[in-house]
Structure formats: C-alpha cells, structure tokens
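Homework-ish question, so no full write-ups if that breaks the rules, but can someone show me the predicted structure for this set?
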Amino acid sequence: MSTAIVWFRQDLRLADNPALQAACEQCERIVPVFIDDPRDSTVARIGAASRVWLHHSLVSLGNSLEQAGSALICRQGDPLEILEALIDECGATRIFWNRCQDPVTIARDKLIKTSLAALEPKTFNALLIHEPWTVLKKDGTPYKVYTPYWRVASAAYDGDRDRHQPLPAPASIPSDAVCRKLRGASDIEGLGLLPDKSWPASMMSHWSVGEQAATTQLEHFLGKHVERYADGRNLPAESATSRLSPYLHHGEISPRQILARLTRGRELSALGDDETVYAKEVFWREFGYSLLFHFPDMPTKPLDRRFSNFPWKKGQKALQAWQQGRTGVPIVDAGMRELYATGWMHNRVRMIVASYLVKNLLLHWRQGEAWFRDCLVDADVASNVMGWQWTAGCGADAAPFFRVFNPVLQGERFDRQGAYVRQWVPELADVDDRHVHQPWSLSAAARAALDYPEPLVDLKISRQQALDAFAEIRG
DNA sequence: TGAAATGTTGGGGCG
DNA sequence: ACGCCCCAACATTTC
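A: Not a homework solution, just the prediction itself:
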C-alpha cells in the first residue's frame, strides 16, 4: 500500500491545493502533517498574532480533514527530524508539499528535499500566480518598479489562463486507522500557539477563520465592495477593502482562487476600473515576493544602499508611544489601536502610521516592521518588508522625490467625518470635525478637558528634519 | 498610494 | 462706474 505524507505549510486549505491533489491521485493512503518549527530565524518566524490565527486555522483544517475521513497530525521541532520519524512510523513512500517563497524557508526546504530524496519529494506552486523567477525584464534582471511589473505579469496571466485555474478540493482523502492513530487528541493545543492571556480571544472576536470563512469573505467583498473599490479602499471608516490578507497569509485561500472568481472568465485587461485596482493589489503581493526572492537580504538591508547611512534616531519612549497609540496624532493612534485590538489595520492607515514612525519620529523602519510582524494576523515577510521599505523611501518606489505624509491632511482627506478616529480613540468622540484630526488646535481649556496626549513631535519641524537627513545621504 | 510653495483667477468690498 | 486690494479657490511647479 502506497502512503504519502502531505506537508501543510502556508496552504491550510483543501481546495486549490496541488500537493494534496497529487498525493490523492498517486497514493492510496494520505498522512497530512503540519510542523511548527520553533527555530525559524527571527525574520521568518511569525509573530504572536499570526500564531493565534494559525492555531484557529489548524483547528479548521483539522475539522475539514476529519470530515473528509482523514486527520491532521501536528508536530513541533526540526522539520527534517520530524518528517524522518513520521516516515518510519507510517511507512510513507512519497512526500508532497507546496513551496514557500521566503529565503529562510527556501534554504531549509532545499536541504530537506535532498535528505528525503529516496521518497522522490514532489513540490508545487500554490502560493503565487507567478513564482519569482518567472517574471523578469528582457535583460533577465528582476523588476524594481511596480507598473512595468504589473504590465508583464498581468499579460502573462491573460496569456495562459488555463494554467492559473484553481483546482477543486479532492473528492476523497484516503486514510486509515494507522494514520488516525498517529494523531494525538491534543496535537494542536500541544503546539502552544495560544498564549495564556486574554487578548487572543478579544482579537479573534473580530474574525472568522478557515477556508470556508475565506470564501465567504471573498464573496462578500466581490458582491458589495469591489464596484467602488478605487475610492472606497482609501476610507478606513468603511469596510470596503477585501480583508482577505490573513486568509491569504495562511493559505486558507489562494491568489488563483481570488483572480478566477474576480475575472469570471474575462481577461484582466477586460476588467472594469475598480476591479482592475483590486487585481493590482493581488499583484502587489506577487511583486513583494519577487523582490524578496531576488533581494533576499531585503528584510534587514535597504534596497537603496544610500539608506545604510541614514541617521535614524534611537527613542524607546517614542517607539512605545507609537506602539501603544499614544502619539497625540489622532489618525496614527487610531491605526495603532486598531492593530493591537484586531490584529489588522486598514491599508491606508498602515501607510500613515508607518510614515509617521520613519519620517516624523525618525525611527528605523525595521522597528516598525518588527512590531507589525508581531501584531498583524496577516504578517507576511514579503509584503511587510516591501511596505516598510517603500514608506522609508529606501524600497521600490518610483517617486522621484522624498515622500512625507502629513497625517493631519491624510486624516482630513480619507476620514473626513472623523468616524475612524472616534471609533478607536474614544477620548476624541466629542471633538468637532474641524479639530478631530488636530486636537492641539483646540483652545487650551478645551484641550485640558480631554484625556488625550499632546503631540509627541511637531509635524512641521520633524518633517524638515527628515528632509534634511535625506539631503545628507542622497549624494 | 504626496505636500508645500508658488502662480492664477475671479468675486466682493470699498474708496 | 471704475480701479484697487484682498483672499479664497483652484492650478501648477518643485522637491
């Protein structure tokens, strides 16, 4: 009897899962396993919020597998050692998995693949539309500007649509008593992904986890919000973004599934304006993975090497005020509090709080990147690092100038009624619309009546400091 | 996926 | 009626 291990990683779904599909087609018995690798390097290791999500996602996947007559085995430790032990225990003759694309995991898995050569490991692309080495400029070098990347990547999708169609879930996942015995009742609990604190429960009260929930959210977004996406996505008080990022990060849904459902048989080039803006967001994720693959030191080193000499400040108090949402800038504090409470932040606000950290507080983008990685349920190294480098000005940004956001203008433009600020900063609930994004312009008496911090820094002065610092390094 | 400085226009107040 | 000034609103330029 042929037995296959299916190693689940960032693909916690049954549908559009080519490794699972191939195993079901080729083998008579399937052993699904998830391995938590506690030795992951700092950059690849996901943070506390993502681990909480992961716990619930594994529970959901485990339930789906059980409904299909199978069972999920969870282990913690060195993946190669665990896989070798498991191969002995269940007599596996083959192993299948879907590829991850961050540098740490690529290097680790390459070794594992070699070590397990006797089982002819078979790996698949389920993470991306285009794997990073397949989209290059004519001269063979990677894109560093998004727009030309999008042109080529979207045309490649349109030119080979059949290949990008998602797979259905396998009709059945053959298992037997031996496999089920390998799974102890408390396997998922045993990974210790849930800290013994109260925040995980309140954070997860904002979410519904799992493959089914991901599909429901996609349908909700496409049915209601995508038609006004170009404008609506910028308004943090409205839930007009897709909110699919945590599902994508853990692989509860795939980009192939999203694009197939968005396009419904059309080419990307035939989509309406709002749909195109959304499709481009999906390809921003692809672009992030491409950058990370071709510039693997991006998590720690600026893409623009001039920034190695940027005079970042050190300020533990300022960093803490930012993390806790007590900077005195309403839109910044609202975003940071939304992040801490829900594990997620609206994308427009991510740009604003990030810009404030690096260009007003002049703190290193890596400190912001680390905080986001720890707090976001969608923390994806590629997207997170790309976003922070973009904000800091050292990443892939085609702008020919040093971009500095003004959080007051951003707030007034995208949260005109202050609804978002009032939701997350209740101290400002009664401040009128004209002052809600700049409470320091209230009279001294009105300010004293508010239990809200004075601004940490002057926006105009700190902006000028950032511009001066950039002038120093730009050569 | 920007902001601030600078330039232009046009309506209203006023002598 | 007219010119002048002021300034808001909008447009353009610059980093």
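Now go work out the reasoning yourself. Hint: Residues 400-402, 467 of chain A lie near DNA strand C (CB under 10 Å from a C1').
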